[in-house]
Amino acid sequence: MKIKRYEDLEIWKLSTDTAIMIYKLTEKDRFAKDYGLRDQIRRAAISISSNIVEGFEMNNNNDFIRYLRIAKGSTGETRSQLYVAHKLDYIQGGEYESVNESLTTLSAKIGSLIKYLFNKKGDKEFTTR
Questions:
Q1: What is the pTM of this model?
Q2: What is the mean pLDDT of residues 55-78?
Q3: Confidence (pLDDT) at 129
Q4: Strand, helix or coil for residue 34
Q5: What structural domains and CATH numbers belong to the chain?
Q6: What does each C-alpha distance from 57 to 8, 30, 64, 65, 83 come to in angstroms?
């Protein structure tokens, strides 16, 4: 199956859903008042889907792989900031576990796509569209 639009990518859907979860978590109580951490985790979370889209729109596997690696890095950055927020009691255990699991799954799926694209680089017929 050829992917014609970034909206068809499962990782894009998951990344936007995760960003929305982060935004909702950061609207609450003490987290909302910690402007530095709140803004940083939001930027990291939104960066994931933004880099997926930017790389996809390049319509070049090498560029797409590069942007997917950046997106994968942003999942780690977001998880690290989420951990800090959890340790500061800005978010509770269940919320932390849910979003952390989503980010871990997303990172693995991005990694799988990177591996797939890297293995297809020699295939001249393969494109993201």
A1: 0.90
A2: 96
A3: 38
A4: coil
A5: 8-119 (1.20.1440.60)
A6: 13, 38, 8, 12, 32
